[in-house]
Every structure is written in structure tokens, then in C-alpha cells.
Amino acid sequence: MTFITLTFAVFLMLVFATYWSLPRQLARNLLIVVASYIFYGWWDWRFCLLMAGASLVDFLLGLAISSTTDLRYRRLLLVLSLSANLGLLGFFKYFNFFADSFARLLNVIGWHASWVELRIILPVGISFYTFQTLSYTIDIYRGHLKAERNPINYLAFVSFFPQLVAGPIERATNLLPQFQTKRAFDYEEAADGCRQFLWGFCKKLILADRLGLIVDHVYADSSAHHGPTLIIATIAFAFQIYCDFSAYSDMAIGTAKLFGIRLMQNFAHPYFSRSVAEFWRRWHISLSTWFRDYVYIPLGGNRVSRSAQATNILITFGLSGLWHGASWNFLIWGLLNGLFILPQTLLPRLNTKRSKEFAGGESSFPTPKSIASMFVTFLLISITWVFFRAPTLDSSIDILTRMVTESFNGTYWHEMATLYSGDQLRLLWLLVGFFTIEWFTRLYPHPFANPLLARLWLPVRWAAFTAIFWTAILMTNQERTGSFIYFQF
Amino acid sequence: MKRFVLKVSAFLSLQLLVLIALWSGWRNESHYLRGGILKESLTTDTPGPRVLFVGGSNVAFGIRSEFLESVFHRPVINLGLHAGLAKDFILNQAASAVKEGDIVVVVLEYEHYYGYLPSLDLLTMACIDPSELKHYSLRDWAYLGDQGLCLLSALANAGLNGWSTGAEPSSGTMKLDAFNSRADFVHDEMSKFHSTGNDYPPLSFPGLGEIINELNELNERCVSKAATLYLGYPPMPNEVIARGEERLVWLDQTLRERLRFDVLWHPADMAQDDSAFFDSRYHLTKTGAEENSRRVLHAMSGKVNPKEAEHPSRLARGSDASSVR
């Protein structure tokens, strides 16, 4: 079940009504668990068994870790938890990749291994909930969190349906306490949740899905297109993945607010970043901070020598790439991002202010320097997106090569111009409008949270919401509706 | 909470009003799926015992009811409409249509043996004639919910188009007026179909076990109403049949072994030249349909009216079909 379906609309209304009519917190949490398993089982009921098994293992290991002070025993239990979670992830996500890579390596030295490639279906969202349960046991081991003794509260934390399949990846320290305390209905919070959901819904249907048409057409057969068209498609993908993924996060956060649950912000206007390092503080924040806290800092973080710090950054970004999928493309994507942030991380004079930093600067309009920095950052990030989107390493390299070598040929630009007509131009204007709105509302978690909107006369506000909702419906791409890019991870 | 629920309800009501306003602009008076209403009324109004032909558009395009009726001496109803309505709808519609003493011939497209393959037309059908919802299975409803936004979009766009132009979207030959009074799809002006090397029947039939169970359940329903169920195969171009011959022979053998009722003909029995088809490998032209109906009649010889078996010479006469429209 996905957010962009009528099934979800009916499901949400039923769960919402039942949830707030239940008097006890435990009953509400139980409802969340049941609803979440229905939500998840809508894809394939077998996935539920897997999630239940993984949850149970970490629940028991969490209890065991917290019940002893013996450091060696605690470490052993943590290793068990890591092995179970990463083993599960490794089997479902990486088995074929490593088997295939190993077989190729053997071929190079003259051994011909014939591997039986298992037909493994990747359970939706496995990378998200595995990382969530991992953070739970690690935090208990570190003493940052007490083990949850109530299995219902714990299962609600792992399976909470708004963020189950595509994040934000919540920390137990943030989400679990919310399931342990009684929640009261907050009108403002719920209304804001609806508005954030609507914003995400429209962003997905109006922009992401329509940009996807341009991207899919070109990347489906990249060799048939020339440099300028590949550049346009890559830029379109940069916007598509942002609009798609941030839309999902908006809808997840909005839905959670209806149940009195606050999820962490996952995107903070990343394309207004003035450096790649800043971009990674604004893009997929829940995953970036997860890797920072559970990989980068334990490796030594910035408390080590410059060379060790550089290595730690590359390891962290390499793993972050592999988290997305078992392919060389994702690994290179991660490493490239790591490489791009090295200069800024290692040279303190290039480091921008972190606290209180506004996306794109504090002034109402960006300064020429900010615009230049944003442009260069976007350019570097777009280069990495080629590896993320292209199906193979060879095609990624071919696309990048042709983007450079064929871009000085006027004929190809003319050819590209003939490919795109009124529809794409309208989309361009919609994008310009979208980023203008984002720019002027960048102080808020989403544009509809702007207090100016709340001050509008209700009929005017509703007319605006109705207009944007029906624009989204009328622009729905009937082939793409329902799927989100990050479901594949 | 009360304030929130009231405001959300009011907002959703506003959206519903917008939807109704847009929907009312949708012109669908000659939509192909309106043929379903005609078929539904024929099944309700025609007293039994009858011969019902059930399936997707291969039946709608391939059966000449009046011709068969003239030989069978009992009403023939062409229930075929569209394979995209998926097998649950097609079989449920057949089950509810059966009357005492009926003969039911199910001729499903090969894709139905592959699995449950619904299309957005399932949703269009519900909008055109909500009474058809009674034939929808639980998974049809789930599909409706999962894909409903696409329909909402299609409806809103069609409605907007209707309001701005006042016209119905063009659908080529696929129009209601191509159905004759017997609910057979008849059209003279048709482009010819050319099968390509890519045209194959499904490469495998993973949904075979499921549909065998469903067909056996339909048979029980028929038996309980003293009706008789038969299975047939759809027409297909010779080349396409030849390319999938091995799989189709296997399918035929498996069905004959596991179904608890008779299969009337083999897949190859309904093969015709490309020239007998027009826009797809299942859609027969007028002459193709007449030939197909003659072959159906031949295969059903003695099944409907035992006396027919004594006069096989009638089967050779094509003139019965030429007057049919």
C-alpha cells in the first residue's frame, strides 16, 4: 500500500478514527502495530513474517544487553544483533551481487565458476527498518537507551507505517519514548500534518512523476541520445529524485502528525546548499546522521589525523552508497560524494557555519557568490546522480563522457531542443515556481507551514488547496502513480 | 478533535463536489464498455435455456449470435466484452447470469491463464455502470483502491475535456454503436492486423492452477442450476499459434486432465490467417468472425440440439452467417 492510492485514503481514515477513539495508550499502540502489518502485508504478506522475526530478535537481544553489566557479554550480544540484521540485509540485498562479483573475479584468474543465482525478492523497506532496529540495540549497548520491556511499544516503534518503507529512519531515542507516553490529540499538529501531506502529494504528482517521464525515456536507452539530451535528463533526474523522495518524507511526517507522533525532518532544501558537505546535512538527513553516529564517529570521526579522517569519510560514504543497493554504481556514487566533501572537511577555512545556517544564506535574495556556490554544488551532485540512475557502470561512464564530448556540438543542442515541446516547457515553469516557493519559505519545514497562509481567509485558503490538489490529480501520470524511487532500497 | 473532523469532512466534501462537477462533463454515451449494459439486460431479459458465450473481447468480436441461434434454436447471448476486466469479473458475471438449462461456453484469452491481469477499464466499467460492481471480487476492489487515483485523474481529464469541447473522446472503431442488437461487435471498416515476430501467446501459465479451481467452481454453480459448462479457446493468427504451439498443446492437455467438464476444441482449431484479424490478435474482422462462428458451431455439434448432429450438412453452409449483422 502506498500513500498515493485510494486504498491508503480509506485505510488512513479508518485507522485514524479507531486510534483516537481508543482510550488507552497500549491499545492505540496495538492498533498501530496491526495497521502497520496490514499496510506492509499489502505488498506481500510474507514480508510481515520477515519483519516480525527481525523485530523479535532485536527485542530479545535488547533485553539481554540491558540485563547485564558484563561488558564482554554485552559486546557479544551486540555482535549477535549486528550479525542478525546485517546478515538479513546481506542475504536479501547483496547475495547475488557478491556471488556475481566473486564469480567474475574467479573468471579473471581462469576459474569458471557457475553460480546458481537465487531468485530473491527484495522485501520493500528492509534497509529502512533494519537500520532502525540496529540503532535500537546499539543505543542500548551504549547506554543511551533503556531496553523496552513492552513488546507492543517496541513493535509499534519498528513498524510504524508512515515511515516503515522509505523513512525517515527514526532513532529509538526519538520515536520509542513517543510510544511510551500518552498522546493527546493536537488540532494544530494534525492540521499541519494534513497540509504537509498535501504538499508532498502535489510535489510527487505534479513534478516528480512528470520529470520521471523525461528521465526514463532517455535513460532507458542512453546510447540513442546525445550529450545535451543526457545533460537535460540528468538535471531532470536530480529534481525528480528530490521531489519524489522528499514528497514521501513529507507525506510520512504529515501522516505521523495525525497520530500525535513527530518524525525527524529528512530534507532541508538541499539544492540551496553552497557546498557538497552542506548538501549532505540537508539531504536524507535521517540516513546521513545515522551513518555519522554509527559509522563515522565510531571510526574516529574528526578526532583522528587528517588522513585517517579522509579514510573515515570515504568508508562512510562508500557504505552509504552500498546501503542503496548492491552495485558498483552505488558504491562509486557514495565514494564520489565522499571525495567531493573531502576538501571542505579537511580544510577548516572552507568550512561553513553549521549552526543556524539558512539554506542559501540569510538574505531574502541569494548573493551572486551564493548563487555561484549553489550552482557548483548542484553540478557536482548532478555528476554523482549519473551513477545513481544509470543501470550499469559502463553506461554511467559512457553518459558522462558523451555529456562532455558532445556538448560542444550545436547540432546536438538543436536536436535536443526539438525533443522537448510545450509540456516540458510548462514543467520547467512549474519547477521554477516550486523552487521560488521553497526559497521564500525555507525557514519552515514545508511551504504550507508558512504562518502567512494560516492568516488567509478560510475560503481563499481552501480554494488554493483545492486548486493545487486538482492540478495534481489532472497531471497524474497514470503509468507511474503509486511507486516511489526509494521503494527499491 | 470534533473541530478537526468537521473541517476535514467539509474539505473532503468540497473535493467530492469538484469531482462530481468534473465527472458530469464526461461524455461516454458511445463508450465501448457501455456494451456491458446491453449484455447485462440481454441476460436478465432472455428466458432460459440459452447458450451463453463468456470471455473477453475475443468473444465479443468473434461470435455471431443470430447465426448460432438459428441453428441451435435457442437464444444465444454474447457476454464477451473485454479481457482487461480480468477473469474474476468475467467468471462472476457468468456465474450470476446462468439460468436453468443454460449451456455456458467459456472462451478466455490466454493471458487469463497467466494470472490475474486487471486494467484501468475495470474502474471505467464501474463508473459507466455502477451496477456492474456486483460482479467485482475482493481483489478487484483492492485493485480499484490501489489504482483509483489514476481513474480519478482519467475521469477529471475526460470531464474537463467534455466541458471544454462538449464532445466524447475519440475511440476509433471501439464504440457502442458497433454492437448489434445481439451484443456482438460488428464493424465493416477495419484495418488489418499483421502479426510480428514479437507476437506470442504468454510464455508460461503460472496462474493455471488458480483458474482451473475457479473454472471448476463455476462448473459446480452451473451443475447446481442444471446448466452445462464447456471450455473453448480464442481465435488467433496462424503464425502466433504456431510460435506458441508447444505451450498451447501443454495447456490444452493440462486443462483436459484437470477440468471437471469438457473442452470443446483445441487451440489450433481456431487459428485463422492474419487477414481475419484487425487491430489485435484476438479481434476478428466481420468475415473472420463468421468463420469463427462456423467453427464454434462445428465444435458444438450435438451439444446444444442433438438433432443438429444428424444434419452436419448445415454446418457447411456459410450463407446463414452472411445475413447476420
- Tell me the quaternary state: heterodimer
Class by alpha and beta content of chain A: mainly alpha
User: Which shape of chain B, going by the Cα principal axes?
Assistant: globular
Give the H and E element order of chain B: HHEHHEHEHHHHEEHHEEHH
CATH architecture of chain B: 3-Layer(aba) Sandwich
Q: SSE string of chain A, helix = H, strand = E?
A: HHHHHHHHHHHHHHHHHHHH
Shape of chain A: globular
SS summary, helix count of chain A: 20
- Percent range for β-strand residues of chain B: 5-15%
Terminal Cα separation of chain B, in Å? Answer: 63 Å
Which residues of chain B form runs of ≥5 with pLDDT under 50? Answer: 309-325
Indicate the mean pLDDT of chain A: 88
- Total discrete domains of chain B: 1
Describe this structure as you would to a colleague.
The complex is a heterodimer of chains A (489) and B (325). Chain A has helices at residues 6-21, 25-41, 45-66, 71-108, 126-142, 151-159, 161-164, 172-180, 187-219, 227-258, 276-282, 285-296, 306-324, 328-346, 368-389, 393-405, 410-419, 422-440, 451-454, 458-474. Chain A is mostly helical. Chain A folds into 2 domains: 6-103 and 117-183, no CATH class; 189-274 and 352-488, no CATH class. In chain A, helix 6 (151-159) crosses helix 8 and helix 10 (227-258) packs across helix 16 (393-405). Chain A is globular. In chain A, 42% of the residues are buried. Chain B has 325 residues and is α/β, with parallel strands linked by helices. Chain B has one domain (51-322): 3-Layer(aba) Sandwich (Rossmann fold). Chain B has helices at 2-23, 35-45, 57-62, 65-72, 86-97, 111-114, 121-128, 138-165, 208-224, 238-243, 245-258, 286-299, 319-322, and strands at residues 51-55, 76-78, 103-107, 228-232, 236-237, 262-263, 271-272. The longest helix of chain B is centred in the middle third of the chain and has 28 residues, at 138-165. Chain B is globular. Chain A binds chain B through residues 1, 4-7, 10, 20, 185, 187, 190-191, 194, 462, 465-466, 469-470, 473-476, 478, 481-482, and chain B through 1, 3-4, 7-8, 11, 14-15, 18, 22, 120, 142, 144-150, 152-154, 156-157, 160.
